[in-house]
């Protein structure tokens, strides 16, 4: 049995609310992707700025004055900040998704979107992407530090 009311006004309210949540979900997802890639590029550029400049034979007064560890540590801090922002945004997306699903479950069964299969893992792809990419950036920055001072 469905808790969905059969009158037209209630149906329109459910559809309008679902549309509102879906638009918010799309906005949050687009903002996540945009900020994610910006912070990834920023972390990489900060971490490896001296390496980039020396590879293209550009002399920079800033890179010459500051030691390499400053750039690597700054890149790690930027990557950790990006990871935090990504996790917070993914929480918001998850809450919106749960609210949308709760409203959808009140619809009659013939109007609900069927799930393909129930996944045993409850990980979101965005979370896996965040942890993987930012972990790689942090490891590369650490290797950059080690290679500069110990090799």
Give me the secondary-structure topology:
Blueprint: H1 8-55, H2 61-65, H3 68-105, H4 125-150
Helix pairs in contact: 1-3, 1-4, 3-4
Note down, in words, how this protein is organized:
With 151 residues, the chain is mainly α. It has 4 helices and no strands. The protein is elongated.
pLDDT averaged residue by residue: 86
Distance separating the two termini? 70 Å
Principal-axis shape: elongated
Helix-residue proportion: over 70%
Structural class, by secondary structure, is mainly alpha
Give the SSE string. HHHH
- The unreliable regions are none
Question: Radius of gyration in whole Å, from Cα?
Answer: 23 Å
**Portion in beta strands:** under 5%
What's the count of strands? 0
The profile of the biggest β sheet is:
none
Number of separate helices: 4
How would you summarize this macromolecular structure in one to three sentences?
This protein is mainly alpha-helical and 151 residues long. The chain has helices at residues 8-55, 61-65, 68-105, 125-150.
Describe the structure using short key phrases.
single chain, 151 residues, mainly alpha, 0% strand, elongated
């Amino acid at each position: 049995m469905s808790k969905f009311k059969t009158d037209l006004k209630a149906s329109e309210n459910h559809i309008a609310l679902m549309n509102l949540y879906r638009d918010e979900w799309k906005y949050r997802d687009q903002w996540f992707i945009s900020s994610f890639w910006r912070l990834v590029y920023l972390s990489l550029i900060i971490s490896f700025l001296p390496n980039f400049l020396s590879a293209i034979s550009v002399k920079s007064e800033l890179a010459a004055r500051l030691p390499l560890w400053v750039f690597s540590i700054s890149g790690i801090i930027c990557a950790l900040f990006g990871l935090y922002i990504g996790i917070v945004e993914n929480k918001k997306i998850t809450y919106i998704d749960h609210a949308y699903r709760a409203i959808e479950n009140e619809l009659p069964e013939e109007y609900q979107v069927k799930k393909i299969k129930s996944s045993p893992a409850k990980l979101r792809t965005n979370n896996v992407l965040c942890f993987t990419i930012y972990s790689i950036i942090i490891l590369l920055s650490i290797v950059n530090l080690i290679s500069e001072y110990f090799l």
